[in-house]
């Protein structure tokens, strides 16, 4: 969009949006608005004002001119000013997130949990109050709405001008109408003159526009006083709860009107990096633990890690309570295939723990090719996988033997990068301190700590398959991890278990079925499923979405799960619920639930609909896992066999999970007005109900996040994604 | 040996080995603050105190930029009165502080981070979402 802002225009920094096709239809409302505004006012000045200035005083036209200029200035600013577009994130920022990051990340703002969604177009987690405008194809800071009358998004930088435009326009309309009325009343006998006729026409236009404009002005006055954006108001984010972004009426108003102009992010002058970085580099003195940890290992460093974690824990008094033991210093050995270890998500990185195979998929919405390649490229997965030695990625699940042989060589990379993939999964310190003890502490707290506190995943290779997925979110829900190593994987913040990479994935061949995952006899299918996964082709998400939605409805109605049956409403309700839940309870059903739920159709079936149905079916299934109740009342044809957890299936599980996730994520990712916050339905009901079982543990990894015994709300988002929130 | 090695290295800039991203701290709302948590990757590269000091200073600077003070009031009024044409000639308060921040980061890089093989990137280039710290590989040391 045209960028006009006070500052200088310079060499562009950051990634501006790619050029969009020219759509003349978008310019119709703004042209009409401009025409009416300028045209009517001009007529008013030409026909009505001369008489007014003679009859009354010349102050009237001057006053009207001032108001009109003010209106016009605000209109231009609202139209041409960059609303606060975020530049696209650079490649290395999310490198490690690619397959394993959850779709949502939760942060706590003034005590209230707020979700940040992964934007696959812009490649970052949207800051709070940021939203992606589908018209402009940009993430906008403090997104209010996209206004067609100015053909621009209204966001942080130009909200003030938009608001003042509304105020001044209302005033201007009132003035024009009022003075026109005065004129007409004084010329009742000369209404056939052109001046009077024009004045009456202008009055009609003014009167016509007054109602909607005044209504909108009043609406925004309320929003400003409450410190909300249109987006938040319309999606009902804070309907039932507290708005964490408000600072009181007066402060909100002064923030809107009196704060300094926010800076532009795009099109800035980028200062040349004049810093020369040359070795040798200074080093801080190393502690003994660090020296010890320098030895390259394959990520299975129990003692060192615990030592390290202790020392680092002591050192960490930083705000974030994410006290993960830091990874050992990266050795020079670097995996060639691992260019960098980006720690976008968790600064506190963990050493290369074996990554659970749960992957958070986060395909690039706008670059399906890239994602596609990434997802399907075995190397990438392998790399990620190898980081977590025991945890095969979804693709890898079928290649477990070879996967196992890789870690040693790849661990260096992991360590180096802080475990590119592994990190995200949550600093699983894999074999480290093992067990709940070590990591529980680490997990708590920091929102950035997606790392799962290291749990010894090695003992549960199969479980790792699923565990990783939730890693990112798991950290905060450390409470659950104690009894279940996999539990740590719960995505800490993510209420829904969707993964970023799946966000844009369309449903894949539903050849993996959840049932098949659980039954060892099905394992060969995992192999095939893996292959199917590879040549992933994004499909239109809508069909699956609709199916999912329908199935969802059917499912929810037939299950005892609480939830909403209307996919549309559910999104809004989900928003509300979410707000409530966020405030009320910190735990959400395991984020991984979503992909668990996405489990699959009966073995051998590869049709889309059955898959989605199964997805839904599993949605609830996962929740009732503990009950072993195949209460899949969904209409899916294949009866789901009660899940007997079996170890081999983990691979398949991950496979299916990823698959199903993709399916779920697909529809979900589509921008939907009401479903902005829709979350992938977490499979299953409250996590607390799931009893850890060998294989079910894998699946349940995510489910166990919720507090035991907590009530569970099943919320359905638009597109049929559902998730359970434990209350 | 090390010396000659480093002399050879002097001819070209070290390569980036890894990047650490310091995320925003949203606990106080959408005010621009960054997490002061010390990332583990920097453990061997820089002192924790130094790092936290840098981030805290940055946070303070950003808080100053977003402060609702007399300067911003005056600026707003002036802008309204001049139909926002004042923005063509005057630099806003926020921009002034951003310049200060850029200078501070440059100075920190020169004095503290570059000698340690690190490089801070001005967060404004990333939309004020992250502070990117590039970790350069240390070829002169064998580990």
From TrEMBL, chain A:
GO terms for cellular component: plasma membrane. Residues 642-651 have a biased composition (Pro residues). Residues 115-235 form the Palmitoyltransferase DHHC domain. Keywords: Acyltransferase, Cell membrane, Lipoprotein, Membrane, Methylation, Palmitate, Phosphoprotein, Transferase, Transmembrane, Transmembrane helix. The DHHC domain is required for palmitoyltransferase activity. Its main location: membrane. Its EC number is 2.3.1.225. This is Palmitoyltransferase. Residues 432-446, 674-689 have a biased composition (Gly residues). It comes from Betta splendens (Siamese fighting fish). Residues 295-446, 464-544, 620-713 are annotated as: Disordered. It catalyses: L-cysteinyl-[protein] + hexadecanoyl-CoA = S-hexadecanoyl-L-cysteinyl-[protein] + CoA. Coiled coil: none annotated. It comes from the Eukaryota. The chain crosses the membrane at residues 30-53, 59-80, 161-185, 197-219. Pfam families: DHHC (PF01529). The keyword RNA-binding does not apply. Belongs to the DHHC palmitoyltransferase family. ERF2/ZDHHC9 subfamily. It is found in: Cell membrane. One of its GO terms (molecular function) is protein-cysteine S-palmitoyltransferase activity. Residues 309-321, 388-408, 479-522, 690-707 have a biased composition (Polar residues). The gene is zdhhc5b. It is a multi-pass membrane protein. Residues 464-478, 622-641 have a biased composition (Low complexity). The keyword Hydrolase does not apply.
TrEMBL record, chain B:
InterPro entries: Golgin_A_7/ERF4 (IPR019383), Ras_palmitoyltransferase (IPR051371). It is a lipid-anchor. One of its GO terms (cellular component) is palmitoyltransferase complex. It is found in: Golgi apparatus membrane. One of its GO terms (biological process) is protein targeting to membrane. Residues 20-132 form the Golgin subfamily A member 7/ERF4 domain. It comes from the Eukaryota. Keywords: Golgi apparatus, Lipoprotein, Membrane, Palmitate. Pfam families: Erf4. Its main location: Golgi. Belongs to the ERF4 family. PANTHER family: GOLGI AUTOANTIGEN, GOLGIN SUBFAMILY A, 7, GOLGIN SUBFAMILY A MEMBER 7. May be involved in protein transport from Golgi to cell surface. The ZDHHC9-GOLGA7 complex is a palmitoyltransferase specific for HRAS and NRAS. This is Golgin subfamily A member 7. It comes from Betta splendens (Siamese fighting fish). The gene is LOC114845436.
